[in-house]
Amino acid sequence: MDIAISVLRGEGLIVAEPRFESSGAQCASFYRLSYPTDVVDVGPAEDPARHLASEKDERRFEET
């Protein structure tokens, strides 16, 4: 789990916010998602079901 958190933090996908008890002792950090600001829109994702259907059609034509 610590490795996964480290990777996500390194990629800038999550941010750890330290938390403290009223006595001043540090407790578990609060993690939140960090949305990248340099996201590039590549258009709509391809429907995987469409891809599978086309493979099925290709196999059917090969068998005949």
Envelope shape = elongated
Structural class: alpha+beta
Strand content: 15-25%
The number of distinct β-strands equals 2
Q: What level of helicity do the residues show?
A: 25-40%
Terminal-residue CA separation: 51 Å
- Residue stretches low in confidence (pLDDT < 50, at least 5 long) are none
For the largest beta-sheet, the strand count, sense and barrel status come to: 2 strands, antiparallel
> Strand order within the widest sheet?
1-2
Number of helices: 2
Radius of gyration over C-alpha positions, nearest whole angstrom:
23 Å
Query: How do the helices and strands follow one another from N- to C-terminus?
Result: HEEH
Give the overall average pLDDT.
77
What would your notes on this structure say?
The chain is α+β, with helices and mostly antiparallel strands. Helix content is 39%, strand content 23%. It has two helices and two strands. A two-stranded antiparallel sheet has the order 1-2. It starts with a helix and ends with a helix. The model has no long low-confidence stretch (mean pLDDT 77).
Q: How do the helices and strands line up, and which of them pair or pack?
A:
Elements: H1 2-10, E1 14-20, E2 26-33, H2 48-63
Antiparallel strand pairs: 1-2
Feature tags:
64 residues, alpha+beta, 2 strands, 39% helix, elongated
Brief summary of the model shown:
This protein is of the alpha+beta class. The protein contains two helices and two strands.
